[in-house]
């Protein structure tokens, strides 16, 4: 756009020296200092001003703009166009229908937000699942009592014992478990069988020697 055209638009004329959208719609000459020229161009401004003229009237719109400071007139024109176009689309409610729609969206979003917050609070209040029990090591367990140092391990004791002596000791322990009447009923062979069963069950590392000529086992 040339500088002359810019001056015409700023002084009230339309773009490229033609009338502004308001004057074009009103079919009048766009004079210098036209109040509508800075805000309604000759292309799209005509349709917007048609809605403003139908709802508010050209005279009322010009009086309104003249009472507003120049730096706030653009916001006023945008508001007038929005309300006028909304009233044309919805003659009953106009822009109030848009307000109702936005308010309903706010209510729906607030309800959804409250639901999500309630779900989040419920999840946060749930107890955490207990951790699986960890196996306690022999070194860290305080409930295990260490054996006295003066006791000899059974494995070391078995290495120094004679199998025959162990068998005889086992037989004596088995016979001591019975009362005197039962001991009279048990003969040598039964005692030997019980001793072998006891040794095999509780002393698996002991092996019997074959009985010698002067041994009872």
From TrEMBL:
It comes from the Eukaryota. GO terms for cellular component: nucleus. PROSITE patterns: LOB. It holds the Pfam family LOB. GO terms for biological process: hormone-mediated signaling pathway; positive regulation of DNA-templated transcription. Residues 18-120 form the LOB domain. Belongs to the LOB domain-containing protein family. PANTHER family: LOB DOMAIN CONTAINING PROTEIN, LOB DOMAIN-CONTAINING PROTEIN 19. This is LOB domain-containing protein.
